[in-house]
Amino acid sequence: MANKPSEKEQEYIARKEFEKLQKLKADAQKKLAEKEKNKLIELHHMRCPKCGMELIEIDYRSIMIDKCSQCEGIWLDAGEFESVSKLEKSGLDKLFSVFKKV
Ligand SMILES: [Zn+2]
After folding, report:
1. In this predicted structure, what is the pLDDT of residue 2?
2. Which of 12, 55, 88, 90 could form a disulfide with 66 if both were Cys (CB 3.0 to 4.6 A apart)?
3. Got the DSSP string for 1-40?
4. pLDDT tens for residues 33-89?
5. Around Cβ 8, how many Cβ atoms within 10 Å?
6. Separation of CA 24 and ligand 1 centre (Å)
């Protein structure tokens, strides 16, 4: 017959149990945060960061430029500002004329 666990053993078992549950809760929270993040990404995808309306994406010389359909703000993805800055003046003029109101 097995001996009754000592107090020290009981404390050890309880602590291990607590640590296990704590880890489970932390994982659940992490999963929830990830879910929340994905929800936000889905909600904000191709939406103007300023007014929330839909963005219109225009491909100009491989630079994807997003223009808001409402407030007409122009948004660039990571690294694209650098690409725009490398355009020569005539290229920049053409870029702006794409967005010019008719
Ligand atoms: Zn906008």
Report:
1. 63
2. 55
3. -PPPPPHHHHHHHHHHHHHHHHHHHHHHHHHHHHHHHHHH
4. 999 999 999 999 999 999 999 999 989 888 999 999 999 999 999 999 999 899 889
5. 8
6. 41
**What's the confidence (pLDDT) of residue 50?**
96
Whether the CB-CB separation of 55 and 46 falls below 8 Å is answered with yes
How far apart (Å, rounded) are the C-alpha atoms in residues 57 and 7?
A: 67
Cα–ligand 1 centroid distance for 65 (angstroms):
14
Contact between 50 and 77 under an 8 Å Cβ cutoff? The reply is no
Residue 94 Cα to ligand 1 midpoint, Å, equals: 22
Taking the centre of ligand 1 as the mean of its atom positions, its distance from the CA of residue 23, in whole angstroms, is 42
pTM: 0.63
